[in-house]
Design goal:
By secondary structure, this protein is mostly helical. Among the domains are: about 40 residues; about 35 residues. The chain has six helices and no strands. The relative contact order is 0.03.
């Protein structure tokens, strides 16, 4: 068992009791209306005027990609300036940065061509049948949801 802590300083306890006995200080009458007006003003701001955390995900992604592009261009410009503005070195440095994009574009074209070939080889009747199955499944799901809703609401 832990021993009881020693009594605090008597002056400290007197001050503590005295301060606890004081009444709460009332807020100014206009404080509530000012706070509510500020909350409404901030809620009415468009997303681009709010902090970055309140931006839509797409806008944040575009901003980060654009920012990375700007940083890359600034770094390339600095390297070009340090190289004495040699155009041949700049072209070489700039071209090597986008080789991976060309390779990715080639892969995407190959995938698109493969999908096109596969799409042309599927008979149209099968495509119509797949659309009918998806539509029927959707209708059945909608009907089951409506029936479940009606059953739950009627029991109350």
């Amino acid at each position: 068992m832990n021993p009881a802590p020693p009594d605090p300083d008597p002056l400290e306890s007197i001050i503590h009791r005295t301060l606890r006995a004081l009444p709460d200080r009332p807020a100014p009458r206009s404080l509530e209306s000012r706070v509510l007006a500020e909350i409404a003003r901030r809620a009415a701001l468009p997303w681009w005027r709010k902090s970055f955390a309140h931006w839509p995900l797409g806008a944040r992604a575009v901003f980060l990609v654009a920012l990375a592009g700007v940083v890359k261009l600034v770094l390339l410009g600095a390297v070009w300036a340090m190289a004495g503005f040699d155009v041949a070195q700049f072209r070489e440095a700039f071209a090597t940065q986008f080789t991976w994009m060309e390779a990715g574009l080639t892969v995407m074209r190959a995938i698109a061509d493969s999908c096109e070939i596969i799409g042309r080889s599927i008979p149209p009747l099968w495509l119509y049948g797949a659309v009918a199955v998806v539509a029927g499944t959707y209708a059945a799901l909608f009907g089951l949801g409506a029936a479940a809703y009606k059953a739950l609401r009627s029991s109350r």
